[in-house]
Amino acid sequence: MLRGRSLSVTSLSGLPRWEVEELPVEDLLLFEVAWEVTNKVGGIYTVIQTKAKTTADEWGDNYFLIGPYFEHNMKTQVERCEPINDAIRRAVDTMNKHGCQVYFGRWLIEGSPYVVLFDIGSSAWNLDRWKGDLWEACSVGIPYHDREANDMLIFGSLTAWFLKEVTDHADGKHVIAQFHEWQAGTGLILSRARKLPIATIFTTHATLLGRYLCAANIDFYNHLDKFDIDKEAGERQIYHRYCMERASVHCAHVFTTVSEITAIEAEHMLKRKPDVVTPNGLSVKKFSAVHEFQNLHATYKARIQDFVRGHFYGHLDFDLEKTLFLFIAGRYEFSNKGADIFLEALSRLNFLLRMHKSDVTVVVFFIMPAKTNNFNVETLKGQAVRKQLWDIAHSVKEKFGKKLYDALLRGEIPDMNNILDRDDVTVMKRAIFSTQRQSLPPVTTHNMIDDSTDPILSTIRRIGLFNNRTDRVKVILHPEFLSSTSPLLPMDYEEFVRGCHLGVFPSYYEPWGYTPAECTVMGIPSVTTNLSGFGCFMQEHVADPTAYGIYIVDRRFQSPDDSCNQLTQFLYGFCKQSRRQRIIQRNRTERLSDLLDWRYLGRYYQHARYLTLSRAFPDKFHMEPTSPPTTEGFKYPRPSSVPPSPSGSQVSSPQSSDVEDEEDERYNEEEEAERDRLNIKSPWSLGRVPRGKKKLHDSSSFTMSSFCCEPRGLLTDSQTKTNYLHSSSRFYPGLACLWITPTPG
């Protein structure tokens, strides 16, 4: 089955609708099974939570989520109620009568979907019997010491039992069950082994072995076809988990994954080509600020500036109005998340800014949770000093204002020499002395438990980014998730993202990448890579991603050093932007949010459900092999107004925020937004040029089919590499030498 290349774009406003027969949802029951239903562990929780409203709107009371029961989650996230559906009610009652604790209710998120939660602990006494059932079904044994795999077996066995009870009383309704990741896969295996009349979908968000191999710093993508899969899984003591995952993939009627790059990985790791690629979306309404996102950026940036004032007290010799805030966030996977290449690029960026005597300062936040003892005393002291200075300034201001007011009432011009008395001057001098410090501002906000071997801190020591006065790049490691109740940086993650200028996520292994997607819908530019699902998706749908604030680093077809140089070039180019150019770029970035809305991306899931029904019940459901249709290679075109960055400028150092290019005067936000809307209303192909217009240099026929559809090794032939760099320079200006500024156009 061919994977539809651009299905999401066909559903954008103005484009031809995806003409497909609507599913008779009133005669169907849809179940989604995942370990992260009401249980936040990772990105799958975000997928299910944000997609719930779109799916619930479509399926109504015939949509159910199945997950594990945890008392705290139940009390805070679920409202218990009685099942309306007779088949569900009977299944719940039957399992409860047999000693299993099954909870039913509504998940208190947008869409309020029904949830069925199984108490794993109450059914643990069945573990040995269910291990035997799994062995009979697929000859996979689970060692007793693997607590997680044993829990997944219990969860899967309960799921299969529940689905059997439902199908026994479904009254002719067909059942679709979608299983997310290997944790839920056991339920799929047992359901198929018992020949339950259900249509099944298995979705992998990242292959189990792929994550392990990439974490071991192996050249993963260049050796996809060379790995001895069984040997690699056995050496990492995850062979039984790998077998559970692979069995789930091959038992499913339809196999889906979240991106083209993961589809390539799954084909080699799991030995089955995905039938449908289902990109992850977001509930864009949640992040939409209704024309106020620029104001929110200014508001939250001011709060980050307050934190920086305290953190760098005594060394605050840089202009906060010319300071850019960059950040990287996610699980602490040093290599997989690209923290290694990011730190190296920051070292090179620091050298460039110092060499060109730039007045721009870059403050970089690493928001990656790690093991800590507590807050760093020096960091807490900095915030206390800042607050003390603020209180003193307000106190003096009030006294100054009262004296000025009294003098004006008397009709006198106050003597400025007498407006402040000796006590006021003494207090201010003491405040100034309190800001003196003998040490450098700390590079971490917490006391790390494993300071000497921590990868980020070790790299910071190697490259020498210690927040010296002469450094133009400052680094702050915040090894804890952000919270509005924190005494250091009291901001939620969304507020923090809105206040930053750029999110940097140069991941080596990122099946999708929610962090840059969240930046996009909030109008914040971001850096991603062509090894992330998000980066591949944007390359496919946007002709010039950089113009829309999506910087895509090539980590697949060039060496790590060249990738680092390209990332440095992107960061340096961003530092050279004027304030007006950054505002323009944020406007463009925010306009891409429609591409990531579940209202559009949800149609991939519709296609997968229809496909699984046609395979499980071919006598009642039929699907044409050519569906879904493609969109003739539509892409967001390159904006025709000002360039988003001064890459074509010959100025050697970053411009002041007060400087505006003459070309900026050509920019009109409403006109450009309307031009984008018109562009997406008419089909646009990479090879076709509108009548009366010249073909732009950026509108080449370079497509993602050559980029993410088949694994390739590093380019070795010099002529081939030259041709590749030439054809890619339109998408990756940083592929040029780091020291050479690309020419305009």
From TrEMBL:
<feature type="compositionally biased region" description="Acidic residues">
    <location>
        <begin position="658"/>
        <end position="673"/>
    </location>
</feature>
<keyword id="KW-0808">Transferase</keyword>
<dbReference type="Pfam" id="PF05693">
    <property type="entry name" value="Glycogen_syn"/>
</dbReference>
<feature type="region of interest" description="Disordered">
    <location>
        <begin position="622"/>
        <end position="679"/>
    </location>
</feature>
<keyword id="KW-0021">Allosteric enzyme</keyword>
<comment type="pathway">
    <text>Glycan biosynthesis; glycogen biosynthesis.</text>
</comment>
<keyword id="KW-0328">Glycosyltransferase</keyword>
<comment type="function">
    <text>Transfers the glycosyl residue from UDP-Glc to the non-reducing end of alpha-1,4-glucan.</text>
</comment>
<dbReference type="InterPro" id="IPR008631">
    <property type="entry name" value="Glycogen_synth"/>
</dbReference>
<feature type="compositionally biased region" description="Low complexity">
    <location>
        <begin position="647"/>
        <end position="657"/>
    </location>
</feature>
<protein>
    <recommendedName>
        <fullName>Glycogen [starch] synthase</fullName>
        <ecNumber>2.4.1.11</ecNumber>
    </recommendedName>
</protein>
<comment type="function">
    <text>Glycogen synthase participates in the glycogen biosynthetic process along with glycogenin and glycogen branching enzyme. Extends the primer composed of a few glucose units formed by glycogenin by adding new glucose units to it. In this context, glycogen synthase transfers the glycosyl residue from UDP-Glc to the non-reducing end of alpha-1,4-glucan.</text>
</comment>
<keyword id="KW-0320">Glycogen biosynthesis</keyword>
<comment type="similarity">
    <text>Belongs to the glycosyltransferase 3 family.</text>
</comment>
